[in-house]
Amino acid sequence: MNQNNVEFYDAVQRAQSGDRESMLQIISAFQPIIQRMRYQVRPQERDDLSQTIVEGLIIKIMNYELEHVPTYAEFCKQLFDAE
């Protein structure tokens, strides 16, 4: 298990326990993806899209099963899979 996976696991665990700083750290890691997605919609819809994505990310973080160490790639895949 590499250091990045351990750090991500720890951040998810702390976020689920109510640590706002850890939640913001995870959201920050997803900002490049969010920014790319923003430019696929009309300018007037970009802020709403960002908010919707962040809300969905928070829900996924809070409900993520920590049975195994989630890698960033695994978490991204789960986040963007259709529900």
From TrEMBL:
InterPro entries reported in the protein's UniProt record: HTH_dom_conjug_TS-like (IPR024760)
Pfam family, one: HTH_16
Domain Helix-turn-helix conjugative transposon-like: 10-65
Origin: domain of life: Bacteria
Protein name according to UniProt: Helix-turn-helix conjugative transposon-like domain-containing protein
Native source species: Paenibacillus taichungensis
